[in-house]
Design a protein that fits this description.
The complex is a heterodimer. By secondary structure, chain A is mainly alpha-helical. Helix content of chain A is 46%, strand content 9%. Chain A is built from 7 helices and 2 strands; from the N terminus they run αααββαααα. A two-stranded antiparallel sheet of chain A has the order 1-2. Chain B starts with 16 loop residues before the first helix and ends with a helix. In chain B, the strands form 5 sheets. A 7-stranded mixed beta sheet of chain B has the order 4-10-9-8-7-5-6, sandwiched between helices. Chain B is of the alpha/beta class. Chain B is globular and about 75 Å long. In chain B, strand 8, helix 8 (223-226) and strand 9 form a beta-alpha-beta unit. The chains are: A mainly alpha, B alpha/beta. The A-B interface holds A 31-32, 35-36, 39, 63-65, 86-90, 126, 132-133 and B 32, 352-357, 360-361, 364, 371-372, 386-387, 411, 415-416. Bound molecules: pyridoxal-5'-phosphate.
Chain lengths: 151, 417
């Protein structure tokens, strides 16, 4: 598999859409079930190419190590993302973010109400700037990729 | 200005954990629908009501600048501020009040120490620190080494997290000019044999600096008995306010240190031709100091002193023993730092989990701990860990809270298996 295939075969944001997650969440009663779901979602993250685990691809401000790379499909203009982390919850939240943002055109991506979805899932505190888990900088990096691709 | 009333032994308050907890309003709240269990005391401790009240009272009744004379409020502020210095002097059993210098905290105090001792160094001279230091006791010395051409040497530690005393003795030589070691490790909880460290350093004529940030909340310190040159700590870890800390220095050492920051308060006389400097301790206290914070710190020390130290120690040791006993039943949990002499600081790793996972899922259950490298990256490298999860206890933590911690950890473990 070439690394482009890795991008294109990522099910998150393609087969697994954020609506499905929102739906599932509405049936989960307590925090344990919700976190179990998120951790499971994290297990769906496709393998991340080892050579891409470079300082350049590291997302700053994370306690755990988080890497982010992207690929822009020239035919459709869609942005494909891959994320890796050594922490389970960050992996799960990254998978959640991919469900919202992966395989979209820059315009579509920039329209997603990320904060609103996190609030709906009662997970907003995880992306608040006061949390040192780096998800905020991960989101900033993705938005920047989209803005650059647009112009 | 030593108030003699404090020299008479006062009747100590009995140590009743439930009564003690009532002194800390912040502890009584819900986090994520669960009662708060605050186990991040190593990062910053909570303040008893008397500390908060002492600062409110100061602002309500006495607030003015210090050492400016001329009016009543100024006198009261100066009396309160200098009285706080006396309290710290007694707390550390310093020989003289001039030996207590106010700083912003441990970090600033260590930077002052590195600045003040720097002129003794020649290229090739050596500074010794240990592998378990906080960055605050590494970086100022590295900066000093860079400035002077001195060399930084590191005392090894064992897998249990104890200082390798043999490695220390081997490092010591004539070129050793400064030994700066932590009294207690913020990650491992290890209580270092600093009396021995200091004594050996003296034999080669080195200055001794002790980082007491994690020690003073847990034990009585006597700087004269230790005979160190400099001892530093932060108020906020000692149940006092943020923004103030202490550098204790022997008078002879401080007198030999050049002034640091220039400005008001630290001068005797200023003219454009020549400025002469004030005497100790003011020589090192340029500008308007943190007055209310000094008052708050003194209130925290008085509060601690209202209990029998042995009773607090017994309670803290019981918490640590309980945590260790419960941990022994969790094969998926590994304690980092198993020194024989420890304060109740409990660093750990859980199989297959990143410390940040543990922190997030404990917070979900109302439990506050610290996760990450704890500003001790070289120590993390030593233990080959990306970081640890750390529960650090204070005397106001209860046995029930230790139980709650382990129930919460069990829950997390189940979530991932
Ligand atoms: C051992 C040790 N030294 C120094 C410091 C720095 O203290 P402060 O941030 O209050 O200056 C800390 C605080 O985390 C510490 O634990």
């Amino acid at each position: 598999m070439t690394s482009t295939d890795l991008f294109l075969n990522n099910p998150l944001g393609v087969e697994v859409q954020i609506d499905e997650v929102l739906d599932a969440f509405s049936f989960l009663d307590d925090w344990e079930e919700r976190y179990a779901y998120i951790i499971d979602l994290g297990r769906k993250l496709p393998a991340f190419p080892e050579p891409e685990k470079t300082a350049e691809n590291l997302v700053h401000g994370c306690q755990s190590q988080v890497w982010l790379i992207h690929h822009i499909d020239t035919d459709t203009g869609k942005i494909f993302l891959l994320i890796e982390s050594d922490a389970m919850i960050v992996r799960g939240l990254a998978a959640l973010i991919l469900c919202m943002l992966n395989a979209k055109t820059p315009e579509q991506l920039l329209q997603v109400d990320i904060d609103g979805i996190f609030a709906k899932l009662d997970l907003f505190r995880h992306i608040s700037p006061t949390r040192g888990n780096g998800l905020r900088s991960m989101l900033q990096k993705i938005t920047l990729i989209a803005s650059n691709a647009k112009s | 200005m030593d108030s003699s009333s404090n020299l008479q032994p006062k009747a100590k308050r009995p140590f009743d954990i439930h009564a003690v907890r009532q002194d800390f309003k912040v502890l009584h709240q819900q986090i994520n629908g669960k009662p708060l269990v605050y186990l991040d005391n190593g990062a910053s401790a909570q303040k008893p009501e008397v500390v908060i009240q002492s600062m409110v009272d100061y602002y309500h009744h006495n607030n003015a600048n210090v050492h400016r004379g001329a009016h009543t409020l100024g006198d009261r502020a100066t009396t309160a501020f200098e009285g706080a210095r006396d309290t710290v002097k007694r707390f550390l059993n310093a020989a003289a009040r001039e030996e207590i210098i106010w700083t912003r905290g441990t970090t600033e105090a260590l930077n002052l120490a590195a600045f003040g001792l720097g002129h003794h160094l020649q290229p090739g001279d050596e500074i010794i620190v240990s592998a378990m230091e906080h960055h605050a006791n590494i970086v100022p010395w590295q900066m000093l080494a860079e400035r002077t051409g001195a060399i930084l040497k590191v005392i090894e530690i064992s897998d249990q997290g104890e200082l390798d005393v043999n490695s220390y003795h081997q490092l010591l030589r004539e070129r050793t000019k400064i030994v700066s070691v932590t009294h207690v490790s913020n990650v491992l909880g290890t209580i270092n044999p600093i009396a021995e460290v200091i004594e050996a350093a003296k034999k080669v004529g080195a200055f001794t600096v002790i980082d007491g940030a994690q020690a003073v909340p847990h034990m009585q310190v006597d700087v004269q008995a230790l005979d160190c040159d400099i001892y530093v700590f932060s108020s906020h870890k000692l149940f006092g306010p943020t923004g103030i800390g202490v550098l204790y220095g022997k008078k002879t050492v401080l007198n030999n240190m050049p002034p640091w920051q220039g400005g008001g308060e630290m001068i005797e006389r200023v003219s454009f031709e020549k400025t002469t400097y004030n005497v100790l301790p003011y020589k090192f206290e340029a500008g308007t100091p943190a007055i209310a914070e000094a008052v708050g710190l003194a209130a925290a020390i008085d509060y601690l002193a209202s209990f029998d130290r042995a009773a607090i120690d017994a309670h803290e040791n019981a918490l640590l023993t309980q945590a260790q006993t419960l941990a022994a039943d969790c094969p998926w949990l590994k304690i980092v730092g198993t020194a024989k002499h420890k304060v109740p600081v409990f660093s750990f790793l859980m199989d297959g989990l990143h410390p940040s996972d543990v922190g997030t899922l404990l917070d979900q259950q109302g439990i506050a701990i610290r996760t990450g490298h704890h500003c001790a990256m070289p120590l993390m490298d030593r233990f080959n860990a990306p970081g640890t999860a750390r529960a650090s206890f204070a005397f106001y933590n209860s046995a029930e809270e230790v139980t709650q911690l382990f129930q919460a950890l069990e829950k997390i473990h189940r979530l991932f298996t």
